[in-house]
Amino acid sequence: MNGVIVIDKPAGLTSHDVVNRVRTVLGQRAVGHLGTLDPSATGVLPLVLGKLTRLAQFYNAAEKSYEGVIRFGFATDTYDAQGQPTGPLQPVLFTRAQLNEVAGNFRGNIEQMPPPFSAKKIHGVAAYKLARKKKHFQLKPVQVEIKEFRITSFDRDCAAFRAQVSSGTYMRSVAHDIGQQLGSSAHLEQLRRTAVAEFTLADAHTLKELEQAIERVPIAELFVHARKLLPQFPSLTANEESAAKIRLGQAVNLPELSRAKQIKVFYGQSELIAIATRIAGTLFHPKIVLG
Fold first, then answer.
1. Fewest CB within a 10 Å sphere: which of 80, 156, 267, 270?
2. pLDDT tens digits, one per residue of 133-146
3. In CATH, which superfamily holds the domain spanning 64-193?
């Protein structure tokens, strides 16, 4: 079973928990995800199945979009609502205009310190494991890009936002740092991922929907159509002779599409059989064989 299915991850499950549930429901061992979500977060979690797990490498730097809520008044040790408060409740004294001004500091290329409870490795050990044991360690700031960060509403001690960010950006850190700049401690109260690369909530299915569908419809009907995958690569449909060679990992001449260095090769309308790299002219070599 090869395909991509987008799950609307519920709160309370890790991304790996969702992968395991889908493995069980589909009876499919080869299942991976395209970007971890914190257990408390919800939303878009694309899963790759079977041979399409080989596509994961193309999504390592995928942009992500979020909607969420920042709560002001106190910070937590995890930078979100699951953590323990790190200090007493503080009054929220800033205005919406001041909040908007500070939010402007979190657009563009910025240097961000990851949360102490994160998967960042310290000498090969995840930071959150050291943080749980109250071990001392030092994280290093990283460069991230925040293409969009907009406050959509503000009511007393809570601000809703919308964001589009580069891979590796922690919205928990954004919430924490905004609070510091405003002189009012803060943490991330809610987070919902609305998109990963080309995958959106419109593509997503709940785990319950998946479990119910497996009993009454061909499961492939829930998959994202292969033609939608990796839209940055042009698509080409191979004839039977070329498809046979590609499946064997052999280079083939394909009709001229563009000067694209990499293309998606299909056999028929929906069977993605390879990601191919141009060698010269119209000669392409299958970098990854998928079918």
1. 156
2. 677 777 788 999 99
3. Pseudouridine synthase (3.30.2350.10)
